[in-house]
Amino acid sequence: SAGAYGQIYLNGAYSLTLGSTTSLTGDIYLYGTTGSTIINQGAFNQTSGTGYFYAPTATNASGGTITTSAGSSLYFGYYTGETTTNAAGGTITATGAGTYIYLHSLINQGILNAQNSGTLQVTGNALSNGATGVISGNGNINGNLTMAGGTLDPGISSVGNLTFISSAFAVTAASTLNIEINGATSDRLIFQTPTSVVDIGSGLLNLSLSLLSVPTPGTTYTILNIASGGTGITGRFAGLPNSGDYFTAMFAATPYTMQIFYLTNSITIAVPEPSTYALLGTGLFLLVLRRRRHSRA
User: Fold this and answer.
1) Distance between CA 249 and CA 262 in Å, rounded?
2) Share of the chain above pLDDT 90, in %
3) Contacts of 108 (CB under 8 A, 6+ apart)
4) What is the three-state SS of 64-108?
5) Do residues 187 and 179 lie in contact, with contact meaning Cβ atoms separated by under 8 Å?
6) Taking the model in full, what pTM does it have?
């Protein structure tokens, strides 16, 4: 236990690895000067005050956990030019209101959690999410995010909102958005005062939809929206190029038809009314659909 104030300082070209059985808890400073390397494979728990975990090369390795709670804060990375990585199999979590993890130019290949109003605060360049990276939770991400792969998963094992504040958001490589729908509610990505157009990419973001109950006809779910400011949303989900396109989702081995709508400041999923379902197997429906798409051309 680090207690009220614990400090580990590497002065010079040294390497420190916190092994898988290592646990540091309290108000912790772990940092190194030029040439040093710090690797965490254990449990780093910032439970009070403001802590630091940085070096020219700082890595949260596979099996490593970094957690802030109880209103504490942690700087993971600090100076420009440092290489800061959350490796595949590593987990970083900010949990609770007023709790922060400052991520300095982080490359994420592991799991980043913003839980229960906790905040992941991006400093330096954009947070970059890689092919194995997962960003999840029902808290906040403050700063720029580039989805260069991996998964966005709002909520924590249930329906929830993941909120981006003052962020530039862009999808630049094949990625996945996991959305759960339960009753009248759904997961949602919320953007507050985005600093540029919210760009989900041209067919780069795959929508993975999970139904937790039978959907109610006539219900519309907002899965992404700009709550304030910004200049709109651009891009389309993979395989759903047109506003109004139909797709199916499964619950209890039964397929249910859904409809995607791309609006200026939101993306919604609608469950058609029974009268629309009746048209699905008719030539009238196909004619209406073709005319709708032709009119957009």
Assistant:
1) 18
2) 85
3) 85, 86, 127, 128, 129, 130, 133, 135, 150
4) CEEEECCCCEEEECCCCCCEEEECCCCEEEEECCCCEEEEECEEE
5) yes
6) 0.90
- Residue-wise pLDDT for 152-168, tens only, equals 999 977 899 999 999 99
From residue 195, alpha-carbon distances to 58, 81, 225 in Å are: 29, 24, 14
Amino acid at 182: N
Please determine, for residue 291, whether its predicted confidence score (pLDDT) is greater than 90: no
- CA gap 108, 148 in Å, rounded: 10
Q: Which pLDDT belongs to residue 295?
A: 41
Nearest 5°: CA angle at 271, between 266 and 276?
Answer: 125
Residue 284: enclosing H or E segment and its boundaries?
helix 283-296
Long-range contacts of 49-52 (CB under 8 A, 24+ apart): 49/4, 49/5, 49/73, 50/74, 50/75, 51/27, 51/75, 52/28, 52/78
pLDDT tens for residues 100-114?
999 999 999 999 999
Rounded to whole angstroms, how far apart are CA atoms 107 and 128? 5
116 closest CA partner among 162, 80, 75, 76: 162
Mean pLDDT of all residues belonging to the chain? 91
Q: Cβ distance 141 to 162 under 8 Å?
A: yes
| pLDDT at position 5 | 63
